[in-house]
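Exercise 3.2. Students should predict the tertiary structure of the chain below and write it as structure tokens, then compare their answer with the key that follows.

Predict this chain's 3D structure.
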Amino acid sequence: MLSERRAQPAAAQQSLEECILNALSEDGVQECMQLADEAATDEVDELDVCLMQALSEDGVQECMQMADERRDASQTHLEASLSRESPPMRDAALIRAKAGAAAAIDGEREAPTALEQCIVDATNEDGVQECMQMYMGSE
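Answer key:
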């Protein structure tokens, strides 16, 4: 049965080509393409291959356990990536804060204010927030 499943993609491709060559109109070609799309949904995935190669009920259980572990790992990875802030976004916020502070410096003055200099010298977003609290809280 496994060799039959492996031979299906090649046979399906040949069948599609024959169908297209024998089509009498564009509608016929469209029908061939629809049939090929329907056949493509029946493709074999990793779990199917594992199940087909299983020699016993224990082998089937191992396949199911591996599929469950893969799904759980994917879900955990997705949840972890959604639960933390992306570092590039923090960097972008820092760049915007520094650019804003630099743009706010009056061109007629030679030196920036203490707040502006603190923001420009900050190494991360937390440093910018500390500057804001330190200088804005004292006004």
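Discussion points: Confidence is low (pLDDT under 50) at residues 1-7. The helical segments are 2-22, 26-40, 46-53, 57-83, 87-104, 114-121, 125-136.
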